[in-house]
Amino acid sequence: MKTERPKPNTFIIRCLQWTTVIERTFHVDTPEERDEWVEAIQMVADKLAKQEEEGILCSPTSQIEIVNEEEMDTSISHHKRKTMNDFDYLKLLGKGTFGKVILVKEKASGTYYAMKILKKEVIIAKDEVAHTLTESRVLKNTRHPFLTSLKYSFQTKDRLCFVMEYVNGGELFFHLSRERVFSEDRTRFYGAEIVSALDYLHSAKIVYRDLKVLEDNDYGRAVDWWGLGVVMYEMMCGRLPFYNQDHEKLFELILMEEIKFPRTLSADAKSLLSGLLIKDPNKRLGGGPDDAKEIMRHSFFSALDWQDVYDKKLLPPFKPQVSSETDTRYFDEEFTAQTITITPPEKCELKSSLFFNT
């Protein structure tokens, strides 16, 4: 976007990361130089968009960092490495761009897990190798009651497999889509668990939004409190705080629009959401050096004992009514009704050493 403010010959680059706008401003000496930069950037953007539409099956392996084969060994007991033959495949739980999530049963132990199966070619094509490896490292090294744990990870010729703790109460937004809005008490319960988990991650220098490991400085933690504000707003208000199908208009809403609240919302709830959704991350609730502790002290959470939250001593406002470990009533039937298929490997050769072995 071209502009003459705050200086002549300015141009702005914006992109959207979920509901977070990333914006960078540049100044050059002449209008001609600005036009050259804008044209070059647009050319790259168009090329990337075209590649995404066409789908890239293979990327040059020389562009991808080789990872130590032992780095991803997540078998806690260090037994022999797992393979896909060690599991029975029961139901499809979900499906996305990178692969699918399947309810599996480990043959040796009879334990149920959720197996996340990702296609290597898609991860490479979308330049998600580093992000995927970071996610695996984080899952391997974190232990918290409100974070899903990783039991095993392994790979085949063309897939990465993450064997995760299976929780059959369903996703938060499965329930929210059914009920449209949650009470403040129910939102407080879920919100407190999220705050507890984020506090733990931040103490380990991990930002949840992109599972990025922080450097020595604290930049970036406040993005998680914005995300918390968006989630808690949607739980209590039944809609997103900012929404427009047009991305440009959505940028403007996030950057400029004031938050609107239903009249039924309590003063404490409005205060919390207003603080979490402050646009300046340095002024945002939780954006200072106290991080999560500042949010924990907010009046919206004043009735909670945070140690009781961590110890899971609070009475849940909703308890899933499941009849067995294979009861998937809280997962979308669009997925669970499908027949499980594991398609054969693609012809594209993908070196296992690009990822991990366990």
Automatic annotation (TrEMBL):
Residues 302-358 form the AGC-kinase C-terminal domain. It comes from the Eukaryota. ATP binds at residue 126. Transmembrane segments: none annotated. InterPro entries: AGC-kinase_C, Kinase-like_dom_sf, PH-like_dom_sf, PH_domain, Pkinase_C, Prot_kinase_dom, Protein_kinase_ATP_BS. Keywords: ATP-binding, Kinase, Nucleotide-binding, Phosphoprotein, Serine/threonine-protein kinase, Transferase. Residues 87-301 form the Protein kinase domain. Belongs to the protein kinase superfamily. AGC Ser/Thr protein kinase family. RAC subfamily. PANTHER family: RIBOSOMAL PROTEIN S6 KINASE. This is non-specific serine/threonine protein kinase.
